[in-house]
Amino acid sequence: MFSFSFFSLETWTLLISFISIFVLYGYWSFGVFEKLGIPGPKPLMYFGTIGRYNNVYYLDDMECAKKYGRVWGMYELRKSVLAVMDPDMLKTILVKECFTYFTNRRSLILNGDLYDALVFSEDDHWRRIRHLVSPSFTSGRIKEMFSLMKHNSHKLTENLRSKAHGGEVIAIKDFFAGYTIDVLGSCAFSVDLDTINKPANPLITHAEKMFKISVPLFLLQGCFPFLSPVLDLLGFSFFPKSTTDYFKTLVEKIRAERSDSSKQNFSDFLHSFTSSQTGSKENPNKGLTDHEVISTVTMFVFAGFETSANTLVFLAYSLARNPEVMKHLQREIDLTFPNKAPVQYEALMQMDYLSSVVDECLRLYPTIPRLDRVAKETVKINGITIPKGMAIMVPVYALHYDPELWPQPEEFKPERFSKENKQKINPYTYLPFGMGPRNCLGMRFALAMIKLALVEVLQNYSFSVCEETEIPLKMDPSGLVGPLKPIKLKLMMRSMDDAEVGKGN
Ligand code: HEM
């Protein structure tokens, strides 16, 4: 029989106190939204409201939006987070009050060696870096990099030829991931990686590793945030040290080679950051420091890789499932670049239907499904008090599936973004690249890279669904918006007749 004398009275007292504190601490932060009168799912001890309705976090947001409307309160582990998808409030948070109250994203502290990357930087530090790197993303600069992109899109198209000849079923991401990392490698540091032909490239392995956040570390810092500075000091980071070290060594090696070489004219990001670099730690206001150059270049690969590769995958999937849209797009491509003429930057960026197809794909699959900001001060917006330090989460995925804003939201309808319909769209209801001063810096670059690959591939091939294509898709619960299993499609050569039809229209 169980005996209480097994432990002494002191031990029992300690044990009961410990359990009580543990339980109290697990619930302690959960009254915030009740006090503010904001609805939301009921939190569970320590876990908060994570995955209450769906284990895929952005599908969970959709369920919450259905139940609680366009503003609700949730708890990410013990952290209170205000979800906002009301377009008027979004305008205030993302644009009007960006500089006063909502300049920064949430700080997770454990950013390791990427502590000074643009994405994580705050206030004046962010303003300074954004100001310094923005000139690398003007249309003029992207046009200069277009030939680097084209070099890689040709390789992609050639690589797909044997697959299309045999009408093979392919895991489409293998090809688009190779293309994306090759473009980023050449535009970031003029390195011709040729991943498309030699897939075992360490850069792609490291770029993929960046998004694999350690779950135990996430739970530890989320449940016991006061431990974060200690974990940081001990060298724990969400970004694997082997990966940040790899990028650091790569950038340093390239810089050393360049300083020894007579060739000094490169059209890549690294060159534009270093050539404007006149600052140092002691005099940081002038240019990027050496460390900031490394973090910024690394971050570009990180920010641009999975987002762009997944968008291309979802484009292929959506077109394969909607062959009439694909034919319409191929007609526009054939008219713009007759007889498979080389793709030109200006003409590409002016293709209306292509633009509608890409926009609609990013509505259905916004690869970054949530935005986040943090309130610097207590502020009242639309009658809702947002306390200082409160994290704001914008559920972009749920916003893009709101049936009042997007009728039949599950359907792929590029005409929603036709020239005349686009003017009627409230910009705060469509946020695949975020919004305001803190929006995606690489948007124009990403669109050029994505459109180029899509056009060149569709000049030559068509996609179709096959037995191996999963419909509907099961989504990956972790990381960015992506399928749980690789998407498989059939690739076919475009027939001559098909191309002729294009010419006649
Ligand atoms: C389809 C591709 C892409 C998508 C959907 C995408 C989406 C986003 C989103 C939603 C944000 C957050 C915006 C906000 O908080 O308002 C963001 C930030 C950012 N993105 Fe992208 N992105 C893409 C490609 C790229 C590429 C190719 C690069 C760089 C080469 C890039 C660089 C950045 C940077 C640096 C930020 C942080 C900006 C800042 O904090 O000031 N992105 N992106």
Automatic annotation (TrEMBL):
Transmembrane segments: 12-33
Membrane topology, as annotated: Peripheral membrane protein
EC number per UniProt: 1.14.14.1
Class of enzymatic activity (EC top level): oxidoreductase
UniProt-annotated binding residues for heme: 440
Any one GO molecular-function label of the UniProt entry: oxidoreductase activity, acting on paired donors, with incorporation or reduction of molecular oxygen, reduced flavin or flavoprotein as one donor, and incorporation of one atom of oxygen
Localization in the cell: Endoplasmic reticulum membrane; Microsome membrane
Chief subcellular location: endoplasmic reticulum
Cofactors (names): heme
Alphabetized Gene3D superfamilies for the sequence: Cytochrome P450
GO cellular component labels: endoplasmic reticulum membrane
Domain of life: Eukaryota
Catalysis: reaction(s): an organic molecule + reduced [NADPH--hemoprotein reductase] + O2 = an alcohol + oxidized [NADPH--hemoprotein reductase] + H2O + H(+)
InterPro entries reported for this sequence: Cyt_P450, Cyt_P450_CS, Cyt_P450_E_grp-I, Cyt_P450_sf, Cytochrome_P450_3A
Record keywords: Endoplasmic reticulum, Heme, Iron, Membrane, Metal-binding, Microsome, Monooxygenase, Oxidoreductase, Transmembrane, Transmembrane helix
Family that this chain belongs to: Belongs to the cytochrome P450 family.
PANTHER family: CYTOCHROME P450 FAMILY 3, CYTOCHROME P450, FAMILY 3, SUBFAMILY A, POLYPEPTIDE 65
Listed name of the protein: unspecific monooxygenase
Species annotation: Menidia menidia (Atlantic silverside)
